[in-house]
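Support request, priority: normal
Reporter: lab tech (M.K.)
Component: structure prediction queue

Hi team, I submitted a job for Malonate decarboxylase acyl carrier protein from Cupriavidus necator yesterday, and the status page still shows it as pending. I've pasted the exact input below so you can check whether something in the sequence is tripping the parser. The sequence length should be 106 residues. Please let me know if I need to resubmit or if it's stuck on your end.
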Amino acid sequence: MEQLRFEYEAGAPARRHVLVGVVGSGDLEVMIEPGEPGRTTVHVTTSIDGYGRVWDAQLNRVFSAEPRAAMRIRIHDFGATPGVVGMRLAEAFEALDDALDGKEGA
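Reply from support: The job had stalled in the queue. We restarted it manually and it finished. Here are the results:
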């Protein structure tokens, strides 16, 4: 298992916790909680050693697109592909946006 850490500029803290995916399913789990203002940290626990550059490239694409809320994100993968990583992060961000828009549980 390899542990990776990344940091990105961000805005105000996220307003809630989010959990998407299930690591035991051969997929990927993303857990989000509010972070420190101005900073998002991403901690990745991956079952594939030596993929730090792949994670760096994928996360840079996600976090360079638009400013996001400040979050602490923990990702546990099970050998997930970059496409699954992007999909799970998008799902988590959508859950955060739905909570802000009052759509939670709709």
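The chain has a mean pLDDT of 85. The beta strands are 2-9, 18-20, 28-34, 39-46, 71-77. Let us know if anything else looks off. Ticket resolved.
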